[in-house]
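Work package 3, deliverable 3.1, input record:
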Amino acid sequence: MPATTSRRSSASLAPRTAPWLFVAPAVLLAAGLIALPLVYTLWLSLRGTQVSGSGLGVRREVFVGLDNYAHVLSDPALLAGLGRMLAYTLITVPVTMALALVFALLLDNTTTRLKRFSRIAIFVPYAVPGVIAALMWGFMYLPGVSPFTDAAGALGLPEPSFLGPVSVYFSVANVSVWGAVGFNMIILYTSLRGLPQEIYDAARIDGCSEVQLALRVKVPLIVPGLVMTGLFTIIGALQVFNEPNTLLTLTTSISTDWVPMMQVYRDAFVTNDLFSAAASSMVITGITLVASLGLLRVLQRRAFGED
Amino acid sequence: MPNRELVSKMTRSRGLAAVRLVSGLLAASMLVVACSSDDGGAESAGEPVTLTYWSWAPNIEKIVEVWNESHPDIQVRVNTSTGGDEIVAKLTAADQAGDLPDLSNTTYQDLPALIISEIAADVTDIMGDREDETAAPAWTMTTLDGVNYAVPQGTSPMFLFYRTDVFAEHGLPVPTTWEQYAQVARDLHAADPSVYLSTFPANDAQLFAGLAQQAGASWWSVDGEGGWSVDMNDDASRQVADFWEGLVAEDVVATMKTYTPEWQAALADGTLASMIGAVWTPPILANNAPDTVGSWAAVPLPQWDPADPASGVLGGSATIVTTGTDHPEEAREFALWLNTSDEALNAYIEHASIWPAALSGRELPELQGATALMPEQADFYRTAAQIDEVTVPVTWGPNVPAAFDSFTNHFSAAVSARSGFADALAQVQADTVADLERAGYEVSE
């Protein structure tokens, strides 16, 4: 038809430019907020200071190639930090996911009472900023001001040690679990509410108990939700900073390089070695990226049947 | 009322990383703002000059206000968003962005880092002839190679603060030697197991440094050939480390970190019966343990050799003029006014607190009486002046933050294990040397 032809010819450029216009905001934001800082960090990681002149000397910035990477990768403190981060991750991730799933299933159970109240009560800690949560728990861990210490004393029990060499891992993990469970629970609960009721009816008619229903019907159906929340939890654990860095000021059990992110912060803002901080940042970014992409690949194949 | 030294401490107390993180972000955003703001630089004659000044002192605005009222041509704008323990990192970043403030506060131990980064400008013009009018410890710490790099603000003579009521209750003598101090720690804890004489705080490298200086340590020095030498694992430092390891291992001193809620509670409820501090400590004690006001007294530190009394340095700050200023004349004039004029020092005393490095300031009437914490101790400031006389000359190095960070980590581990203080000290020495070498220095040990 003539009308169509003319319209098509007048808008002949549109198909080629329109897609670019649509992706432009995303591309610009990604370039400005991710790519540029990344390139700048990469640049910083190849620089260092050199002192010249006699007497006190003068500190100047110079190109040092891969020196910072050699320094960072041969630094036992970073390796130790990675080890502690791994231990923390191994505690946090399973506990967070298990609690979130159990709470979501309980809330979804028809016989559970006080649902609305419980849902909000479990979710509220997520709204508390990480630093505040760490401070609050920190007060409860410190022997001098801890209500648990008082309670144990009143009951004649031995004083609990929350900040011992081993217990400190659980104490730090506890703060983030407390904050993260609610968020993950809401996502899983929403997935559960999205499932059609007919499946449950069919299962119940077939004689399925509520526990069986939860484990054999509901859980397999929300695997995509579990994968997503699990991935977020893992990435969050790899980037742990707020909780230990806040507790650092309170206890001798946490060092300023307790986890890699704290080391980066320390190098950049306390000991004024921006270049090492940049190199460690690049290393951590690499590890996180490889870990999450790898995990996503494996899980996607399993969970979504995608390739 | 807190003064600057106190605030550098408080930054650590509330320093609850939150503060650091927030101020870190602030600095980042400040950088952005600073980059976009147009400083002009070339004001024509007659137009008022505006100086920017970074300081972390509370109420500093009120003191600067006094200047602004009497100097319409040189207006000073204060920026208080940078904490005392971050000043080097923030100024370095500002320097890289080409947007240094005209003036900044610095702690004495951070000054060398600012000098070698070419951030602190030479102020010999205004300070060079003031040696006789400046307290000796402050003069030494702001002068390197015969050049003045800052106008000193205050000095920080160290004191032992103790609870007179607790000491009287148990009939304990006030220790004048470290040997007596250890005995008092044992006797007090034996008499009342819920009370400790003090705490050995692994987070306070500055305190340990002060105690080591008193024993004769000189951690950094510029050697003849123009390199740095680092000597943190010397006999004097080891002596101090061994002394405290003994007390910690015997469990007669506590090991809680200072400036934490636990520590505040321990001061308030009498778990800690004394504190090693400095001239700026009374307001901190009064704020943290208001119910104990009136029950404290201050004496000079216990000595290793009473025949040859000595004291170390615990804090203190100074004002630098930066190399980035477009108005060096005006900036120097303000720096001098801020730290030496009776007008400014009076404002300090009214709104904050200060033990001035400028000797004339010590004659001000408010510094002749007692402090609010110890209303009966009329000789507090006279004692402070006497302690300044026996304070050893101290040279800080260019990487104090790295050394202090290493101290905190290694001594935290040692304190948790209640042993290994000597190894920790050797680690601190190794870390500090390695850090200096990484920055490109020739280091001798």
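Chain B touches chain A through 56 residues (CB under 8 Å).
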